[in-house]
């Protein structure tokens, strides 16, 4: 029992400010879709999902992230979409800036270097608006400009089980 490892479910994300959060919450309510709204406090754009890792790995990836170049990231959320298999409705950029992709790749690299098995699927930047979606009208929307003020490391839930998010660390992007 004394050898039980402290495990945490963590991911890096872009974190909207309150104004954008409100805007996204409104958008999620107005969607022509079924499903369940993501809580306003959870709205984010995942950059790199480390998953369930031992606590020392969390410390290491947070420390390594301090060394990254963190340029300002300007993106335009202009498209609603539906990922059918995970059954989510999302909003995202139809054309993502190179800086966003570079940041996501760097963070994945940091996680890999710390021994985390990362997903190899291509990075598809999106903000999840609803879950359990089986019907949805996808397509373009009036563009929402997002100059991301910060990147965060989030712990989801406790002990490796998903749940309410907690910001473990924040980094300004400028
Ligand atoms: P819940 O799972 O309780 O419904 P959640 O999906 O918000 O809530 P997590 O499962 O901890 O919480 O996921 C946190 C974030 O990481 C979400 O944006 C989720 O889409 C993303 N994510 C989860 N699993 C993966 C994965 N295997 N690869 C990439 N991103 C993932
Ligand atoms: Mg999940």
In terms of topology, how is this protein built?
Elements: E1 7-14, H1 18-30, E2 36-37, E3 45-54, H2 55-65, E4 73-83, E5 88-92, H3 98-113, E6 127-131, E7 139-148, E8 150-158, E9 161-172
Antiparallel strand pairs: 1-3, 1-8, 2-6, 4-5, 4-7, 5-6, 8-9
The protein binds adenosine-5'-triphosphate and magnesium ion (MG).
Folded structure, characterized:
Helices cover 23% and strands 41% of the residues. It has a single domain, classed as Cyclic phosphodiesterase (Cyclic Phosphodiesterase, Chain: A), CATH 3.90.1140. It is built from 3 helices and 9 strands. The chain has a 5-stranded antiparallel beta sheet with strand order 2-6-5-4-7. The chain has a 4-stranded antiparallel beta sheet with strand order 3-1-8-9, covered by helices on one side. By secondary structure, the protein is an alpha+beta fold. The site of adenosine-5'-triphosphate (ATP) has 9 residues, from strand 1 and strand 3. Adenosine-5'-triphosphate (ATP) binds next to strand 1 and strand 3.
Q: Roughly what is the average pLDDT, rounded to an integer?
A: 96
Number of helices: 3
- Give the helix proportion (percent range): 10-25%
Number of strands: 9
Name the shape in a single word: globular
- Strand order across the largest sheet: 2-6-5-4-7
What is the CATH fold-level name? Cyclic Phosphodiesterase, Chain: A
Oligomer: single chain
Q: Low-confidence segments, ≥5 residues, pLDDT <50? A: none
Strand content: 35-45%
Q: Any ligands, ions or cofactors bound here, and which?
A: adenosine-5'-triphosphate, magnesium ion
Give the full name of the CATH homologous superfamily.
Cyclic phosphodiesterase
Output the radius of gyration. Answer: 16 Å
The total tally of domains equals 1
Order of helices and strands: EHEEHEEHEEEE
Function: Hydrolyzes RNA 2',3'-cyclic phosphodiester to an RNA 2'-phosphomonoester.
Organism: Thioalkalivibrio nitratireducens (strain DSM 14787 / UNIQEM 213 / ALEN2)
Keywords: Hydrolase, Ligase
Active site: 44, 126
């Amino acid at each position: 029992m004394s050898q039980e490892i402290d495990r945490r479910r963590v991911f890096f994300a872009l974190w909207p400010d309150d104004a954008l959060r409100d805007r996204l919450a409104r958008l999620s309510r107005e969607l022509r879709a079924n499903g369940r709204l993501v809580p306003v406090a959870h709205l984010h754009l995942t950059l790199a999902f480390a998953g369930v890792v031992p606590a020392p790995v969390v410390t290491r990836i947070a420390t390594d992230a301090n060394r990254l170049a963190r340029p300002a990231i300007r993106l335009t959320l202009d498209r609603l979409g539906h990922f059918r298999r995970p059954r989510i409705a999302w909003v995202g950029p139809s054309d993502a800036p190179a800086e966003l992709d570079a940041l996501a790749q760097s963070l994945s690299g940091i996680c890999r270097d710390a021994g985390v098995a990362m997903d190899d699927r291509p990075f598809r930047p999106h903000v999840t608006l609803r879950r359990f979606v089986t019907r949805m009208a996808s397509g373009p929307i009036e563009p929402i400009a997002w100059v991301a003020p910060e990147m965060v490391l989030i712990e989801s839930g406790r002990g490796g089980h998903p749940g309410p998010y907690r910001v473990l660390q924040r980094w300004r992007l400028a």
